[in-house]
Amino acid sequence: MAFDIAVKRVYEAPAKADGQRVLVDRIWPRGIAKKDAALTLWLKEIAPSDELRKWFGHEPERWAEFRKRYSAELDGNGEAVAQLRALLGKGKVTLLYGAHDEVHNNAVALARYLRAQA
What we know:
The chain is of the alpha/beta class. It has 5 helices and 4 strands; from the N terminus they run ββαβαααβα. The chain has helices spanning about 35, 50-55, 65-75, 80-90, 105-115; strands at about 5-10, 20-25, 40, 95. Strands 1-4-2-3 form a 4-stranded parallel sheet, covered by helices on one side. The N and C termini lie close together (about 5 Å).
């Protein structure tokens, strides 16, 4: 079964097409009010560890290694992954993130991980 997953910056306006909106950052994004985020869930527990996040630093040359290390963290984080999979079982989920880089961020890596597990 293929999951219906989208990835979007939390700063973009919510849309009905987003389905369930899940913030997957450990830290709340600057400058956005909780009511404006229109979240279904803030799943901090699925975000990369602080150590991994700081090591990565959104450096594109570390992207492949970041994905590998983050996948290993996700493999050991069954409860949070199961919670997200349960939402995906109910329909479309949009993974929200705060990073400026739209290609190299944890939400993109998480979506790829979930699709590979489906």
